[in-house]
Design a protein that fits this description.
- It contains 29 helices and seven strands.
- By secondary structure, the chain is mainly alpha-helical.
- A five-stranded mixed beta sheet has the order 4-3-5-7-6. Strands 1-2 form a two-stranded antiparallel ribbon.
- Strand 6 and strand 7 form a beta hairpin.
- Helix 4 crosses helix 9, helix 8 crosses helix 9 and helix 15 packs antiparallel against helix 16.
């Protein structure tokens, strides 16, 4: 191998955390933002990679992908206890710098120890898996130019879909809320972290603004840290940057897993494409029912609906982060197998998984338990080895429970507040077919599962069904892929057995992502790894050579059709979500314009006033209905009280009676005709300082004129029917 021209720079690498922290401390966004991303989303994973002995497996690009993925998994575990103490930038930044400096020293010690151990142990004393390593060329990430071009296009589409959906917020000259309804919750979490340390408070209930409320918040800690250090970076930009990193890292880990397993560039590139742009065969049911929709993969009954991975990357990236953590564990398990380092890395990944997505963890953790049991069965001939395997697994489990205890306690608390969580009871889906032959429940779900999964998974199911048996056996013999297969089986079993109490089955939509990830990896393995590229086939995609020519032609044509039918979700639906809020409500594109964006345009002057002129510590009150939940995004201010629905129920306060009483009193004071002084007294009692009157309020409030009473309210803004009143 050619010598590394930059090897001499490693002499100064110990300065990297200090330099990044110093640049971040400037708090000048163009300088501090990239420095913070290096500090939080690169260096921790790089140290993990080197501590695991995996730094030599890949070239610089491959190491960068692994480093980002590992950082996104590990960094929140470090930030979580810090955010329970403070949300001030100085202590946070200083603590991260100290932790990374210590991690660098520990990594160097582990590397020296590993080199020394290999040097002093004679070859005849090493076990088979500890044989002296040979100097081999590291794997290359995107070794062909065609691969780099294709993946650059994929990355651009993913970045546009994740960033453009939320940011910029004022491209039209006035605040426009994100049209993805889940962002009401995402924005509220980051808004709470801006106001106070963990646990979360409620931006929708002023008296409960101090909380506590609990949610799987690990995804939000890196963007919250970014905003704490660089307050000029908006919540929308910080969130979308994190979402883009998670999406690209997930696709990158799929690439690494498949490239390692097959050795082929073509299958690995296909894995990255399938993890992002490829959806299900959603066009087929839409054409059959003659339904015109914008969200293509929302045709199924909400209780049974499955969204593509790209849709989840845009809508709920916190759950995709859980999938990313699982894929990271799969990759390291494939590389290291039963390894003593799991006693350190395992608890970190387990705590990160539970803190990122409780739903996704319900697939990976039972899958891991099955993996351990199978490992013990394989060691049954040597009871001592089986017992060591069990003790190691029990130790890791105990450490995970200790580290994740605060998260688990919070989840239990919120479940008690809601009085609901998961249920075995099922309704019939509107699209039930064979399921109508049985009572609603697991049996009915199983009867419809084959055709339903074929439509929802598309190539992620059809491609793996064509895999040769030898590939399935190789996958099962690989420690990491066996864990992924077991977790996918758990996810499928849970998908048809248990659902959320909510109308939208959060549990089913999220846990099935583990099966989708397994489908991505297996589907890509269908391609022959060593096929040469050509002008017509620049990626060298080819079906298994052992197939007959006729079978390859027929299956190739079928698979091309399936792949093309699955692309509109990634190439139409997700990019459209990024541009819909900029479309006019008149003209040929009005059918694609969103009502929330239209209303924001009509209330543009008031939106600018609320964001720019109202004091930062103001408490706003508008109509209490769900349509005004996005006022927190528009104004970036605390709300007095609002109705909580499926996406904001995570902020349900502990004192539910007080919240409901406040909601009833404020709603009556706003909507019912009456004395201005009485309304003023009610609003002031509930800490409200400003009242916004817009289109919705003029329509629903029967006596908005009472806010013009000079002794109680002062009109600080008026533009036609729009007004903002300050309580005296």
């Amino acid at each position: 191998m050619a010598p590394n021209r930059f090897a001499h720079l490693r002499t100064y690498e110990w300065l990297l955390p200090t330099a990044a922290a110093a640049l971040a401390a400037t708090r000048f966004a163009p300088v501090a933002t990239p420095a913070l991303l290096v500090l939080l989303a690169c260096l921790p994973g790089l140290y993990v990679m080197r501590a695991c002995g995996l730094a030599g497996r890949w070239d610089a690009a491959g190491r960068a992908v692994f480093s980002v993925a590992a950082s996104l998994a590990i960094t929140p575990v470090l930030l979580n206890p810090l955010w329970h103490l403070t949300n001030q930038p100085g202590p946070l930044l200083g603590s991260v710098w100290l932790a990374l400096s210590a991690a660098y020293r520990l990594t160097r010690w582990l590397e020296r120890r590993a080199r020394g151990t290999r040097a002093i142990r004679p070859a005849d004393m090493r076990s088979a898996d500890e044989a002296a390593p040979t100097v081999t060329r590291p794997g290359r990430f995107c070794e062909r130019r065609s691969s780099r071009v294709i993946l650059a296009i994929v990355a651009a589409i993913v970045a546009f879909s994740t960033l453009g959906t939320y940011w910029p917020t004022e491209a039209l000259g006035y605040p426009v809320p994100a049209l993805i309804h889940d962002f009401v919750k995402h924005h509220a979490v980051l808004f709470s972290l801006q106001q106070r340390p963990l646990p979360l408070g409620s931006p929708f209930y002023a008296e409960g603004a101090g909380g506590p409320a609990y949610y799987y918040h690990f995804f939000y800690l890196i963007p919250a840290m970014l905003r704490a250090v660089c307050p000029t970076v908006s919540i929308e930009l910080a969130f979308s940057l994190q979402a883009a990193l998670v999406a690209l890292a997930t696709a990158g880990m799929c690439y690494l897993i498949v490239k390692r397993f097959t050795g082929g560039e073509g299958p690995a590139v296909l894995a990255a494409i399938m993890a992002t742009l490829v959806g299900g065969l959603d066009l087929i049911p839409l054409l059959v029912t003659r339904t015109a929709v914008i969200t293509l993969d929302a045709w199924a009954d909400p209780v049974f609906r499955i969204h593509s991975l790209l849709t989840q990357m845009v809508w709920t990236p916190q759950n995709v982060q859980g999938v990313l953590i699982g894929l990271l564990g799969v990759y390291v398990l494939s590389e290291r197998g039963a390894w003593r380092g799991w006693l350190l890395l395992g608890p970190l990944l387990g705590a990160a998984l539970l803190g990122s997505s409780v739903w996704v963890s319900m697939a990976f953790l039972p899958g891991l338990a099955l993996h351990v049991l199978l490992g013990m069965a394989a060691r049954r001939a040597t009871p001592r080895a089986a017992m060591r395997h069990l003790l190691a697994a029990a130790t890791v489990t105990g450490l995970v429970l200790v580290m994740a205890a605060p998260s688990l306690s919070g989840y239990a608390e919120m479940s008690q507040r809601h009085g609901k969580s998961l249920t075995w009871e099922w309704p019939y889906a509107w699209h039930a077919f064979l399921g109508k032959l049985a009572p609603p429940g697991i049996v009915a779900n199983l009867l419809d599962l084959p055709w339903f999964l074929t439509l929802e998974f598309g190539p992620l199911l059809i491609f793996p069904l064509l895999l040769p048996r030898a590939t399935w056996r190789r996958a099962w013999s690989d420690d990491g892929l066996r864990l992924l297969l077991l977790s996918a089986a758990v996810a499928l079993a849970a998908f048809v057995s248990v659902r959320s109490h909510f109308t939208y089955n959060d549990f089913g939509q999220k846990i099935i992502m583990v099966a989708l990830a397994a489908g991505v990896v297996l589907a890509a393995c269908l391609l022959a790894p060593g096929a040469p590229p050509s002008i017509v086939n620049p990626l060298g995609w080819s079906l298994p050579a052992e197939w007959s020519s006729r079978r390859r032609r027929v299956c190739g044509a079928l698979l091309c059709v399936v792949l093309l039918l699955s692309l509109p979700v990634g190439l139409f639906q997700s990019p459209l979500a990024a541009v819909r809020r900029y479309l006019p409500e008149v003209g040929p594109l009005r059918v694609l314009s969103h009502p929330a964006a239209q209303r924001a345009g009509r209330e543009a002057s008031a939106g600018r006033f609320l964001r720019e002129r109202v004091p930062p510590d103001a408490v706003l009150q508008a109509d209490c209905g769900v349509e005004r939940l996005n006022l927190v995004q528009i104004a970036r201010r605390q709300m007095g009280v609002a109705v909580l629905e499926r996406d904001t129920e995570v902020f349900l306060p502990a004192d539910r009676e007080s919240y409901e009483r406040c909601l009833a009193e404020v709603s009556a004071a706003l909507t019912e005709p009456g004395d201005a002084a009485a309304a003023h007294a009610v609003l002031r009692r509930h800490h409200i300082t400003h009242v916004f009157v817009g289109e919705i309020e003029r329509e629903r409030w029967r006596d908005a004129a009472k806010f013009d009473a000079p002794g109680c309210f002062e009109c600080v803004f008026r533009d036609g029917e729009l007004a903002v009143y300050e309580l005296k």
